Every structure is written in C-alpha cells, then in structure tokens.
Amino acid sequence: MLYILVVGGDKRYIHVIETLAKLENNLYLIGFDTVSFDKSNVKHAKLEHMDLSIIDAIILPIAGTDERGQVEIMYANGHFYLTEQILSSTPDHCTIYTGTANDYLQGMCKAAQRSLIRLFDRDDVAIYNSIPTAEGALKIAIEETEETIHNANVCVLGFGRVGKTVARLFHAVGANVYVVARNHADLARVTEMGLTPIKPNRLHKLLADMAICINTIPSLAIDDERLTNMSISTVIIDLASKPGGVDFVATQRRGIKAVHALGLPGKTAPKTAGRIIANILMESLKSEQKHQ
Ligand code: NAP
C-alpha cells in the first residue's frame, strides 16, 4: 500500500487513478476537482494542507511540466507549479513518474535528489501507445479529406515506433503508402512490408502527388521550401510532439491544411491509453518498492 500524489493529467489518468485505487493504494489528487471517485482511498487534496512527508510517489501528466515547472491541470481551476521545495518535502525514496521530461523537470529532480522515471522512454510503452496514436491519425485523415483513404497517396515521414504503426494502419485500409526514412535498414523494412521507400532527398518531388502527409519526425521535416511543391489540397497531419515538425506559419500562408495532432491516445482511446499507463506504472511502482 503506497501513498501516491497524482498531479494533473488528462482523461487517461482517470483510468490510472481507478486502477491504482483498486490495489488499495492511498491516492491524493490535485487537479481533479470536477471528477468524483467513489473509493474512500481516493481523496481530492490541496497542496497547502498535505503532509508530503508520507508520499511515496508523485505521478505527473504525460508531458511532465513546462519550462517553468507548471503542470497542466484539466479538471480543476487554477495553476500548479512543481518546485524543488515541494520535492524536497517528500521522503528521500519518493519517486517522480512522468511520460516525458524536459530539462527543467530533470534539473529540478536532480537538485532535490529524487528519482525521476520517464515512462515513455520505454520502447514497449511507446509501441503500445502508437496504436491509439495511429488510429487517431486515421480518424483525422478521414475527417479532413473528401476522398476515401483507400487508394489515396499517403506519405509517412519517419519510421520509428509511431511511423511504423501509422504506415501499417494506412496500408491496411488500402492507402498507397510512401515512407520517408534516412536509415537503410528502415528503407529495406519498408520495402519488405510492401510499401514504397523514399529517401529524404526525394521527398520534395514526391510531395506534389500526396493527398495526405503524416509527419512523425520530431524536428523540422516539412519546411517552407518543401511546401513549395505541395498542392493546396494536401492535408498535413503532424504527430511530432511540440514544437512539431511542420512550419505552421508557412502552411497557413500557403493555404495548406495542417493539423498538429497532439495527445491522440488520450483523445481517441483514453481507456486503452490509460490502461497502458496504469500497467507500466504498477510494474514500475512494484519494482521501485523492491529496491527500497
Ligand atoms: P522514434 O521511435 O524515435 O522515431 C522517430 C523517427 O524520426 C525515426 O524514424 C527517426 O529516424 C526519425 N528522425 C528523428 N530525427 C530526425 C531527423 N532530424 N531527420 C530525419 N529523421 C529523423 O519516435 P516515435 O516514438 O515514433 O515518436 C515520434 C514523435 O511522435 C515524437 O515526437 C513523439 O513524442 C510523438 N508522439 C505523438 C503522439 C501524438 O498523439 N501526437 C503520440 C505518441 C508519440 P532515425 O531512426 O534514423 O533516427
């Protein structure tokens, strides 16, 4: 039985809280005022009234904090800033869980000497999470285009965990899938999957014929120059986390529809995505306990 503080999070975290509560952990929630839970071991909390010295783990949203330590709160009013002082008020063994972590969050945990676990660093989590992400991208593609995905030319940039699942899903629904990758082994795998491999230096030419262009590369992959060749009927779906991989100022100027589709698992399949996070959290909490 652990004392866990959950600070912020989206719809996925409601499932996470319910799962952790079933295991008889004591949960304190900040940022969930408008959601009610019917278990007595789940309590809404205010930081100023909390005894942080009993907290074994702090669970942050997938994005962790912003560059000033602010944690995104969706189900309550007000702001929450995670500080070094808060972390230092927890016991030495208190572990901080997040999906991803920027330099600020990493630095703060280091300064407070608290261990930080980034759940999305794990390959298995990223792969499971790519499934609702790809389904969300398909949903957007269907909604934003006026023709079927079947037989549409779809270009997928990047062939990592998300890129592979996106390419496979669009291929499965009958799209003509082109995958842009820089790595030779990836290009070979693309060919093996029956898709068309494209080297980055050939992307410029290819873009003219694409109905949908899906970016998964976490750096500027579709810049103003690459847009020059793109038809205004092409729909761009950028899946890369902030700041993304598309020059959105240029797409707007050129009248090309571009969607920066973030947090898709939480939007399209919050229960499945919540289950993925809950499973990995339970495993991680158990293993941390063993080491204490
Ligand atoms: P990943 O497994 O690391 O794959 C990234 C891919 O991008 C790889 O193919 C990599 O190629 C390529 N790449 C990276 N930097 C590049 C560069 N400078 N030029 C060309 N190619 C480059 O990452 P992932 O798990 O697929 O995630 C991709 C992005 O999606 C991340 O930003 C992630 O945070 C985001 N994401 C978004 C959602 C959502 O809901 N929108 C959900 C999950 C993940 P190499 O292998 O050759 O390096």
UniProtKB/TrEMBL annotation:
It comes from Virgibacillus dokdonensis. InterPro entries: D-isomer_DH_NAD-bd (IPR006140), Dipicolinic_acid_synth_A (IPR014215), DpaA_N (IPR031629), NAD(P)-bd_dom_sf (IPR036291). It holds the Pfam family DpaA_N. Residues 4-119 form the Dipicolinate synthase subunit A N-terminal domain. Residues 146-240 form the D-isomer specific 2-hydroxyacid dehydrogenase NAD-binding domain. This is Dipicolinate synthase subunit DpsA. It comes from the Bacteria.
